[in-house]
Design a protein that fits this description.
Elements: E1 2-3, H1 15-27, H2 38-58, E2 66-69, H3 72-83, E3 89-93, H4 98-109, E4 114-118, H5 128-133, E5 139-145, H6 157-167, E6 170-174, H7 186-189, E7 193-197, E8 209-213, H8 251-266, H9 268-287, E9 292-294, E10 303-307, H10 312-321, E11 324-325, H11 334-340, E12 348-350, H12 358-372
Parallel strand pairs: 1-11, 3-4, 3-5, 5-6, 6-7
Antiparallel strand pairs: 2-8, 7-8, 9-10, 10-12
Helix pairs in contact: 1-8, 2-8, 3-4, 9-12
Length: 373
C-alpha cells in the first residue's frame, strides 16, 4: 500500500518511535509524577524530557508552559473554553478545522459569546486586515490555522500576531498541519497560545498533542482531577502545566513522541523540500489530465482534487483498490468546502510525508489517469 494520507496521521512511523514506546511500557511503565519509587520517577523523567524538547522546538525557555493533550482538538478546546468569558467576541476564519469551528460555534449558539467567521481571499489566505475589520470592542480571541488541511497554503501568522498584540486580543494558532514541517515560532509570531499534534509531522503516535501557553496568559482547565500536586486541596492547582494535565498521562505515547519528534526535526529541511517537490509534481501531472480539477495552489504541501463525474469518496475507494491510500470527503473542514463549492462531495486529498518518494505520487497520477479513461 502506498500511503498518502499524512495530513490525517503520519505513517509509517520511524522505528525509533515504536521502540521508545515499547521501552516505556517494559522498563518504566509506572504512573509518572504520582509516587516516589524508582519506576514512577523514571516515567516522570520521560515526560519532562519530552516537554523540554517541545519547548526547545518552540523557542520557549520555560517548559512548564507546555501542557500535554491527547490531540490538537483537545488543545484547541482547552484554549478556547479556557480563555473565553460570557459576553466575549471571537474571530476565526472560514477555512478552520472543525476543532476550532465547532467549539466556537457551540458557544455562540448557546449565547455565551458572539462569533465572526472571516472568509479567505481568492488565494485561500486570510489577511490580518480582514481579521481586524471583524473585531469589535468585545473581541477577546482570534483563532487561525497555520495551514488549511484542504488548501495546504500557510497563513502569515506574524502579521496576524502583530495585529492582535496591537489590539490587545489573544491569538491562538492551530499548527496541526505544520508542526514538524515548518519551524514554529510562537513568540516571534506574537501568539498567546499554540496547539499542535504529535501524530502528524512530528512522527509520534496517535493520542498525543500539546498546548503552548505564553507567560502571563491564563487558561482555565477543561477538566479537573488528580495532578499529583497540591493533593491536600480539593481545588485544581493554578500552576502550569499541572492545571491542564489532570489524570494519568499517556506515557508510552509521550515517549514515542519524544523519539519521533527528534527524528522529524533532524530531517525537517529535507522533508519539507521533498514534500513540496512531490506536491508540485503531482499538481502539475493532475492539471494535465482532462476531467481533473485541482484546488490547491502551487507551493502547497498537499494536493486536493476531484475527478469529473466521480464523488471524492468513490475516487478514494478506487485508489484504495489500486493500492493507494488517500482521503476523500470534507476533511472536517466544511467552511473550506463551502468556499470551494465542493460541500456536496468534498475532495480527494493527497498528503505525502517524509517516508514517501516521487515514485509514489507518480503512481497516483497514473492511477488517476487510468480512472479518467
Amino acid at each position: 500500500m502506498i500511503y498518502l494520507d499524512n495530513a490525517a496521521t503520519s505513517f509509517p512511523k520511524p522505528r525509533c518511535t515504536v521502540e521508545a514506546m515499547a521501552r516505556a511500557l517494559e522498563e518504566c511503565g509506572a504512573n509518572p509524577g504520582r509516587a516516589g519509587h524508582a519506576l514512577s520517577l523514571s516515567a516522570g523523567r520521560i515526560v519532562e524530557s519530552c516537554r523540554e524538547k517541545i519547548a526547545q522546538m518552540l523557542g520557549e525557555n520555560d517548559a512548564a508552559r507546555i501542557a500535554f493533550t491527547q490531540n490538537t482538538t483537545q488543545a484547541l478546546n482547552t484554549a478556547i473554553h479556557g480563555t473565553l468569558r460570557r459576553g466575549d467576541h471571537a474571530v476565526t476564519t472560514l477555512i478552520e478545522h472543525n476543532s476550532v469551528l465547532r467549539p466556537l460555534s457551540e458557544l455562540a449558539r448557546a449565547g455565551f459569546i458572539s462569533l465572526t467567521i472571516v472568509p479567505p481571499e481568492p488565494d485561500g489566505l486570510v489577511s490580518a486586515r480582514a481579521l481586524e475589520r471583524a473585531m469589535t470592542r468585545k473581541t477577546r480571541l482570534v483563532a487561525v490555522t497555520h495551514m488549511s488541511n484542504v488548501l495546504g497554503a500557510a497563513q502569515d501568522l506574524a502579521a496576524i500576531g502583530r495585529m492582535c498584540r496591537r489590539r490587545g486580543v489573544l491569538f491562538l494558532a492551530d499548527c496541526a498541519q505544520t508542526a514538524g514541517h515548518i519551524p514554529l515560532k510562537p513568540r516571534e509570531w506574537g501568539c498567546h497560545m499554540l496547539a499542535l499534534p504529535g501524530h502528524k509531522g512530528l512522527l509520534g503516535p496517535h493520542g498525543t498533542g500539546a498546548l503552548w501557553v505564553a507567560p502571563g496568559v491564563e487558561v482555565g482547565a477543561l477538566m479537573q482531577g488528580g495532578t499529583g500536586s497540591a493533593s491536600e486541596s480539593m481545588l485544581q492547582p493554578a500552576m502550569m502545566p499541572d492545571k491542564l494535565e489532570s489524570g494519568t498521562l499517556n506515557l508510552p505515547g509521550i515517549a514515542g513522541l519524544a523519539a519521533g519528534m527528534a527524528f522529524a526535526l533532524e530531517h525537517m529541511d529535507e522533508a519539507c523540500e521533498g514534500i513540496q517537490a512531490m506536491c508540485d509534481r503531482l499538481r502539475g501531472e493532475l492539471l494535465n489530465i482532462k476531467g481533473v480539477t485541482v484546488y490547491t495552489p502551487e507551493g502547497a504541501s498537499l494536493v486536493t482534487f476531484n475527478i469529473e463525474g466521480m464523488g471524492s469518496q468513490e475516487a478514494a475507494a478506487a485508489l484504495n483498490d489500486a493500492g493507494i491510500a488517500v482521503r476523500g470527503g470534507l476533511h472536517c473542514a466544511p467552511g473550506t468546502h463551502r468556499w470551494l463549492g465542493t460541500l456536496a462531495d468534498g475532495a480527494v486529498r493527497v498528503s505525502p510525508g517524509i517516508m514517501n518518494s516521487m515514485r509514489d505520487v507518480d503512481a497516483l497520477a497514473r492511477a488517476v489517469a487510468q480512472m479518467v479513461k
